[in-house]
Amino acid sequence: MTLLETAPAPSPAAAPTARPNLAGMTRSEIASALHDLGLPEREIRMRTNQLWHWIYFRGARDFAEMLNISKTLRATLADSFELRLPEIVEEQLSVDGTRKWLLRLAPTNPQDKGAEIECVYIPESDRGTLCVSSQVGCTLTCSFCHTGTQRLVRNLTTAEIVGQLLIARQRLGDFPDHERPRDGLVPSGEGVRAVSNIVFMGMGEPLYNLENVAPAIETMADGDGLSLSKRRITVSTSGVVPQIERLGADSGAMLAISLHAVRDDLRNELVPLNKKYPIRELLQACRDYPGASNARRITFEYVMLKGINDSPADARELVRLLKGVPAKINLIPFNPWPGAPYECSDWETIEQFSDIVFNAGYASPVRTPRGRDILAACGQLKSETEKLRARARLAASDE
Ligand code: SAH
Ligand code: SF4
Fold first, then answer.
1. Shortest-distance ligand to the CA of residue 378
2. CA-based, 20 to 30 A from 206: which of 42, 164, 170, 272?
3. Phi/psi at 241 (5° precision)
4. Is 236 in the pocket of ligand 1 (CB under 6 A)?
């Protein structure tokens, strides 16, 4: 039996006055919305497929575009449903091509002004990676992560998670017949996708919202729609052991583990969830992860904290611990934030650490920080934008 663990977070109700929003729905949700509309049962499958194609394959934003649906039905659909994506509050473009969107979610009740999340796009020569959020805030309190200093507001719905990809594809011209931005900062060429990879490394702990993350992955990977390969969808977790097995069984996505320490006493401090699920149990869950193999390795993230977890002995212990796990190791230079109790390790220390890992047979790319000029780095999302805004407000009030 699989243990279920759910976040102590309320899932939002639909906005009371809004028409049902089809953008972000799963196939069965679209089918049941059409059923509720009173469409004849024999038509529902075909209409669901048509809507699916328009929303997810072609990126339609308006029912009027759906030319293979009769005019009358298009009008009925437009009266009954919406195609609504989270609102773009701000879009920033880094000199290195990284883009960051600050998104406002639809209010969940009359008091709610609409929570905000961020979503970051990182282009490289052979791929474009979208870093999506799964929660507003986080219940966990990792001591090096800025999101960890914010309380959890709520879980994102499936539609809000898929909505981040739809927005990125809209803005990047990544649907058929849509134009790429003309800044030359988005990979282009015949058959080249702007967004080829998804990482759940934005705000939140995705395995505390698996009930919405798993259907979002299914929607993103559907071959008749957004069509991303599951091998290119990676879910990063701080180590919610009982949910790791479920992720493998339900979604087949790639797994990344935020390890960050090789001893329980230190990991208890950095990632307090370790007190509940210590390193040994976590690594066992990785060994058991369905589909893990040398061709589908698990990524282990390791943030480099000066004088804390970055000694050669730590590197050797890391290699020893990961014996028997099909692993990749991703060293992340710590992204400092104001008031953070850590510093990033020196470059030579990171290189030395990386050499030990490399000599043990692991590729150990050091993740170069991207989009620093727009504060798009891990652990800085949203909170920094909020702070900048507060600073701007303060400056304005001084005038
Ligand atoms: N909650 C999930 C996914 C979101 S965090 C998790 O913890 O895995 C995505 C990655 O960014 C994690 O590996 C996290 O440990 C790392 N991270 C958080 N704050 C960071 C910081 N200030 N500097 C570098 N990496 C950070
Ligand atoms: Fe939450 Fe991940 Fe940050 Fe830890 S590192 S506080 S789990 S977002």
1. 1
2. 170
3. -50, -50
4. yes
List of E strands, the chain: 87-93, 99-104, 116-123, 128-131, 135-136, 154-155, 197-200, 233-237, 254-258, 298-304, 327-333
Is the C-beta atom of 255 inside 6 A of ligand 1? Answer: no
Distance 340 CA to ligand 2 centre (A): 14
Q: Which listed ligand is nearest to 139 at the C-alpha? A: 2
Atom of ligand 2 lying closest to residue 258 CA: 5
Which residues does 56 contact at the CB level (< 8 Å), separation at least 6? Answer: 166, 219, 222, 224, 225, 226
Q: What is the pLDDT of residue 113?
A: 81
Mean pLDDT of all residues in 232-259: 94
Q: Which CATH number fits domain 88-395: 3.20.20.70, 3.90.1150.10, 3.10.110.10, 3.40.50.720?
A: 3.20.20.70
Q: Is 147 in the pocket of ligand 2 (CB under 6 A)?
A: yes
Tell me: pLDDT of 266 over 90.
yes
Task: Report yes or no: 238 and 140 within 8 Å, Cβ to Cβ.
Answer: yes
**Per-residue confidence (pLDDT) for residue 382, from 0 to 100:** 53
Neighbours of 98 (CB within 10 A): 23
Question: Smallest Cα–Cα separation from 87: which of 129, 44, 116, 66?
Answer: 116
Cβ of residue 201 lying under 6 Å from some atom of ligand 1:
yes
Nearest residue (CA) to ligand 2, atom 8:
204
Q: Is the pLDDT of residue 388 over 70?
A: no
> Rounded to whole angstroms, how far apart are CA atoms 171 and 185?
12
Query: 41-52 and 27-37 helices cross at what angle (nearest 10)?
Result: 130
| pTM (2 d.p.) | 0.90
14 pLDDT band, cuts 50/70/90, is very low
pLDDT surpasses 70 at 201: yes
Residue 301 in contact with ligand 2 by CB distance below 6 A:
no
Of 5, 134, 140, the residue with max ligand 2 atoms within 8 A of its CB, to mutate for a pocket test, comes to: 140
Cβ contact 318:358 at 8 Å: no
Active site residues: 118, 378
What is the token pair recorded at 283?
């690594």
pLDDT band at 397 (very low <50, low <70, confident <90, very high): very low
CB 386 within 8 A of CB 137: no
